[in-house]
Amino acid sequence: MSVGERDPHTGHQTTGHEWNGIKELNTPVPKPVWFFLFTLGLFGIVWTTLMPSWPSATGYFKGLLGVDQRQAVRQSIEEAAAQRAAWMSRIGEESLSQIQADNNLMRVVREDGRTLFGDNCAACHGMNGRGNKGYPNIVQAPMMWGDDPETVLHTISVGINGTDPETRTSQMLAFGRDGMLTPEQISLLAGFVKSLSDPAAIAGESEDDIAKGKELFAANCVACHGEDAKGLAETGAPNLTDGYWTYGGSRSDIYRTIFNGRQGHMPSWSARLTPAQIKILTLYLLDLRKQAAGAPEVVAGGQS
Ligand code: HEC
Ligand code: HEC
User: Fold this and answer.
1) Is 171 part of a structural domain of the chain?
2) Which of 67, 87, 106 is the C-terminal boundary of a domain?
3) How many CA atoms lie within 13 A of 238 on its CB side?
4) Which residue ranges in the chain fall short of pLDDT 70?
5) Is the shortest distance between the CB of 245 and ligand 2 below 6 Å?
6) How are beta strands 14-19 and 22-25 bridged, if at all?
7) Rounded distance, CA 166 to CA 138, Å?
8) Is 7 helix (H, G, I), strand (E, B) or coil?
């Protein structure tokens, strides 16, 4: 075996090493590999010259192109803030219906509204606005005070039994505690009121009792809740026939409401939020209602 011997099959020289009759060929490194290594090396040199790269005792080599990611980030934050300020001033200036018709502004409303709602409203009305016991479902239930945008905005601004001089006021009288009706009369009323939204409940009452309840209702309740019990916006007395309950819809919940009365408290937001924020919340809430109207109905508010 000698160095420089040629392999008859491939024409390559051998290295001179041989194991059990197998000889090692002296094959050169393939050209593509050299090419790849060279290109990579060149790229490395060029890139680290152009871009910020090598660390030094006092900082780092800034690169010939002067690229600075930190500055780019700062700039894009400034741009976003300027854009936001522009959107906010438009939301402040434009009317509710103009904003509703503008998809870009509504996108801001949905983003900001979600946060504002979470921070200010969810504690009482729930994150999805569908209510908790004692706090109405404001996404699905019919709005007691009216659901056109200006009215909703006013309700949110002044509150209900709130501190604003113009606050809406609502009070359900304590018919039992204040001795206006006897417990028997209140029980008859509870049975009648329950039957208004739940016809199956009539099965548990005698026809006679329902008739007596109806009479008591006509004498004591229609002034605020209306002849048809569907509520009156002027008094803030809710619809008792729609199956949505703020204070619970079981017979005993209704009994307790009539016995002790109710006076819900909804803060006056004019004192705590800016006019633009109240606008955003109004539009966000109406948007949730529109979406919910398309979705299958879930009666969640106040169910015990
Ligand atoms: C402290 C609890 C509480 C908070 C916080 C609260 N609400 Fe209310 N809200 C209520 C109560 C209670 C009612 C029902 C009052 C009544 O009928 O007497 C109500 C009623 C409403 C109504 C009227 C619904 C109708 O039927 O007309 C709207 C609209 C409303 N809230 C929106 C909001 C928005 C928006 C926020 C956040 C900015 C908010 N609420 C925060 C307790 C709250
Ligand atoms: C002075 C006006 C007034 C009169 C009279 C009145 N209500 Fe009410 N009622 C209200 C108001 C306002 C509310 C809403 C209170 C709230 O949400 O804070 C209410 C709430 C209720 C609720 C609770 C509804 C719910 O969503 O949980 C029931 C039940 C009810 N009233 C039944 C009656 C019955 C029965 C009578 C007659 C005995 C009656 N009310 C008389 C004003 C009145």
Assistant:
1) yes
2) 67
3) 25
4) 1-4, 295-304
5) yes
6) antiparallel
7) 21
8) coil
Choose the residue to mutate in 175, 187, 224, 252 for probing ligand 2, maximizing ligand atoms within 8 Å of C-beta: 224
Structural domain for 286, as ranges: 96-294
User: Quick check: CB of 238 below 6 Å from ligand 2?
Assistant: yes
The 10s digit of each residue's pLDDT in 57-84 is: 888 888 888 888 888 899 999 999 998 8
Angle between helices 207-220 and 183-197 (to 10 degrees): 100
Ligand minimally distant from the alpha carbon of residue 252: 2
Q: How far is it, in rounded angstroms, from Cα 104 to Cα 84? A: 11
pLDDT at residue 304, as a whole number: 39
Contact 294, 287 (CB under 8 A): no
DSSP state of 63: -
Please indicate, yes or no, whether residues 181 and 284 belong to a single structural domain of this protein. yes
The C-alpha angle with vertex 135 and arms to 134 and 141, in degrees rounded to 5, equals 120
Query: Which token pair is 18?
Result: 């041989």
User: From the CB of 172, is ligand 2 less than 6 Å away?
Assistant: yes
State the ligand closest to the CA atom of 167: 1
How many domains, the chain?
2
Report the distance separating Cα 223 and Cα 187, nearest Å.
20
Looking from the CA of residue 240, the nearest atom of ligand 2 is: 24
0.85 surpassed by pTM: no
State how far the Cα of 293 lies from the Cα of 230, in Å rounded to an integer. 20
pLDDT for the residue numbered 211: 95
DSSP letters for 236-261: TBPPSSSS--SS--SHHHHHHHHHH-
For the stretch 50-86, what's the b/e string if a residue is b when 16 or more beta carbons lie within 10 angstroms of its beta carbon?
eebeeeeeeeeeebeeeeeeeeeeeeeeeeeeeeeee
Q: Are residues 45 and 111 in the same domain?
A: no
Both structure tokens of 224:
């605020």
Contact 133, 302 (CB under 8 A): yes
Q: What is the CATH number of the domain that holds 289?
A: 1.10.760.10
